[in-house]
Amino acid sequence: MLEREVKLKTGHTFRLPHFPGEPLPPRLFTSTYFDTVDFRLARLGVTLSRRTEQKHVLWQLKLPRPPARLEVEMASGRSTPPAALEELLFGLLRRELLTAIAKLQIRRSGIRIQPLDRPIADVVIDRVRIFSARRVVGHLSEIEVALRSGKEKELAAIVTALREAGASDGDSRPKVFQALNLNFSDPCLPESAPFPERIKSILQKQLRDILLHDPGTRIGKDPEELHQMRVGIRRFRALLRAARGLMEPEWYASMQEELQWLGAMLGTVRDQDVLLEQLYAEARVLPPAERKIFERLLTNFETHRSEARGQLLDALRSDRYLDLLGRLEQAVQAPALRDAPESSLVQWAAQAFKELVKAGKRGTAEPSDHELHQLRIRTKRTRYAAELALETMGKSAVRFVRQTKRNQEILGEHQDAVVTEARLRQLLLTTRGVKTAFAIGQIVERLRARRRRTKAIFPREWAKLKKRGREVFAQ
Predict the structure, then answer these.
(1) Rounded CA gap, 441 and 443, in Å?
(2) Among 90, 207, 296, 423, which is 20 to 30 Å from 340 by CA?
């Protein structure tokens, strides 16, 4: 589940204000936290704990998803993580052993804010005792406000009321990080930072995104997890490509080959996810009889998706994947760079924009589907190159990057329609029945209408992109 919460600190004058709702039952539980000796999980902002409350034992894995966090829970009385949980952590731990790093006892009280029978949020006060070798070695207390069915606006109002009652800014770190005084946040680099430090910082963020979405990709319930992991891979590749003139050729080629392998494994499943999402969405607008016929055909696509996912999971369990993660980590710490002038970042972004404009000019007045797809790829590369140099280019570059995203979305919607129609045409060749053909035909017509709409609005957005780019690169 995805949890959104805000942490505050209790002050000497704090008194819990009156909120409409019901008091929560008081609780007392003990959480034992696990990590590797070099804090592989903590460095990513991840926590793994074994919570014991009376006779109930619950394992909890928490992954940051700013401003929220993704929580995975498994009931198990084992003293070591359940096998399914260890599987989720395979890429993060890379066969390193887990050990207990802290033990906290939490006494919790609070209220569920619930006006008109709608649970908006839980406000709890946690008083924590920190143990070491069965001795209490420290204390901490904090207020947590966790959204349930409420909105951000309602969360903000609750936080304001708590501040007015004497609460103050809390420590946003997990309790175990506070207890152990751990802080692995990425340092903010000054604009004057040398090029190697800047590129290492950007690559570190991409590696972090890849790793943090690895467990969600393995779970497979939210397609966005796999998508974000794939985005991290593609962005890592694009950033290396943008800086390829400064990198040792053999090292660069080898890294790109392995990243391309993993990206292709993720991409196959992602393509199936997008295809199924679009087909189910289109099916919902069909009349009931045609919808029922069409949805039966989607089992073929579901089978292909399951097969692709199985192959992906095999890849994520492989030594090749672990070796790649190790190499990415080394690349982040010490990329194989040559000496280069500091202006290179902006020059690369400018060159990418120049090539994008040239590619746009090569298109005809009525660009083909293939030309639009190639333009989308170049737009993505230009965006990544600009993001690499963003800190040195100012506000106009932010507007330019925002416009490249907009153009990617439009061209992506067009390409999705092209691919979906092609798959439906293949399905039509192996399908019999007038009603089935009629249902497929209705959806194909809707897809063509979408392609016409995207082609109609694209020239305006393309002109905006060129204008924004010229403002940045003064061409």
Answers:
(1) 5
(2) 207
Can you read off the two tokens belonging to residue 63?
Answer: 């992954």
Tokens matching residue 388: 């690499």
- CB of 441 closer than 8 Å to CB of 423: no
Alpha-carbon distance of 387 to 364, in angstroms, equals 29
pLDDT digits (tens, 9 = 90+) for 370-398: 999 999 999 988 988 888 777 677 788 89
Tell me the C-alpha distance between 401 and 384, whole Å. Answer: 8
Nearest to 268 by CA among 299, 235, 306, 295: 306
Q: Please report the pLDDT score of residue 289 as a whole number.
A: 86
- Residue 20 near residue 39, CB atoms below 8 Å: no
Percent of the chain with pLDDT strictly greater than 90:
60
335: closest CA among 256, 257, 247, 250? 247
pTM: 0.87
Which residues face 112 on adjacent strands?
Answer: 22, 122
Residue corresponding to tokens 């202006």: 343
Full 3-state SS string of 63-123: EEECCEEEEEEEECCCCCCCHHHHHHCHHHHCCCCCEEEEEEEEEEEEEEECHHHCCCEEE
Torsion sign over Cα 71, 75, 81, 84: negative
State the Cα–Cα distance between residues 173 and 9, nearest whole angstrom.
Answer: 12
Contacts of 101 (CB under 8 A, 6+ apart): 33, 34, 35, 39, 176, 180
Of 266, 272, 215, 217, nearest to 237 by C-alpha is: 266
* Torsion angles phi and psi, residue 98, rounded to 5: -90, 150
Average pLDDT, the chain: 89
The number of helices, as runs of H, and strands, as runs of E, in the chain is 14, 9
Distances from the Cα of 153 to the Cα of 70, 120, 159, 349, angstroms: 21, 11, 10, 39
CA–CA distance, 433 with 175 (Å, rounded to integer) = 62
